[in-house]
Amino acid sequence: MSLNLLLTAAGTGTGYAYALAQSRWFPQIALFTADTSPAELVSASLFSRRHLVLPPSNAADYFGLLESVLLAHALDVYIPLIDLEVSAAAARREQLSARVACNGLDFCNAALAKSCYGDWLDVDGVRVPQLVRDEALQASGRIVAKRDGGFGGRATRVLDGPHQVAHYREEGWELYEYIDGDEFTVDCFPLTGSVLTSVRQRLEVKSGVCSKARILRDPLLDRLAAFLVERFALSEPFCFQTRRAQGVHYLIDINPRLGAGSAMSALNGTDFFAAHLAALVGEDPGEHLRPRFRECVVTRQYTEYLMDAVE
């Protein structure tokens, strides 16, 4: 089945990973990319039939312009890649002319409301970091300040102590206990009656980006993934993060979509981006979800592209 597909926020690493998967495996997909930046600043545009410049997704006229784009180019599928846009698109699913390839609004809202994870989480061996109240600040060491709705570390700060708290309190950030332990990201693909996962333990982080990871298996994180799929009736891929301390996993973040780091899982035979595209064109996503090794280490390096040149 052929289709016209739009990736918004295509300048992200996630957008690039989708574009790369399309170029490798799916010639029947006509890819359109969109971003706030022009084509020469978006690597994914090299693989697209056309690149479109759109305003930020929180602009008042964004979805009106988006619908015009969907109609003008006869686009069949639209994949949003920024958490707040994913949520807004899920809310407008019935008003848009293209299929919105994202999970449901309940899950999107739950993922964004990080301060409320503890209200519904029910998996033995998994907890959430405790909120730090004002009366407990003086006894605290390191503190995590986090704002609901943030993603990719943009709304997360690790503070050295109570003396740094005032600004974040004034801006409405929540304060959490700091969990000193290994961090894991779990890529998840819901399948009929199950969910396939790839667990990535962060070994090295540079400028907030994981550059070295160990891919391994963790039955507890598999159970957490299965809980999320069942609790929110999920059908599209997503990922979440935990920190592990004293044998306990703490759920610290959920993304209602894949992340740039999900590309690391592809090296072990679980290409979540290709699997998602396969499902969209009516093929078996399982063909792209075949783990090669029980455990392995994956490293990341930059790739350079010449985008615009003048003789």
Description:
By secondary structure, the protein is α/β, with parallel strands linked by helices. The protein folds into three domains: 3-102, Rossmann fold, CATH 3.40.50; 109-124 and 180-299, ATP-grasp fold, B domain (D-amino Acid Aminotransferase, Chain A, domain 1), CATH 3.30.470.20; 130-177, no CATH class. The chain is 25% helix and 28% strand. It has helices at residues 13-25, 62-72, 83-91, 105-112, 117-120, 166-170, 219-232, 263-266, 272-280, and strands at 3-7, 29-35, 50-53, 77-79, 99-100, 126-127, 143-146, 156-159, 174-177, 182-191, 194-206, 209-216, 238-245, 248-255, 296-299. The strands form three sheets. Strands 6-14-13-10-11-12-15 form a seven-stranded mixed β-sheet. Helix 3 runs antiparallel to helix 4. The termini are far apart. The model has no long low-confidence stretch (mean pLDDT 94).
Kindly state the number of beta strands: 15
How many separate domains? 3
Rg (C-alpha, Å): 20 Å
CATH topology of the largest domain: D-amino Acid Aminotransferase, Chain A, domain 1
Shape: globular
**Largest sheet geometry:** 7 strands, mixed
How far apart the termini lie comes to: 41 Å
What proportion strand? 25-35%
* SS-based class: alpha/beta
Q: Tell me, rounded to a whole number, the average pLDDT.
A: 94
Contiguous uncertain segments of 5+ residues: none
Based on the structure given, which CATH architecture of the largest domain is correct?
A: 2-Layer Sandwich
The helicity comes to 10-25%
Strand order of the largest sheet: 6-14-13-10-11-12-15
CATH class of the largest domain: Alpha Beta
Number of H- or I-type helical stretches:
9
Q: Secondary-structure element order, as H and E?
A: EHEEHEHEHHEEEHEEEEHEEHHE
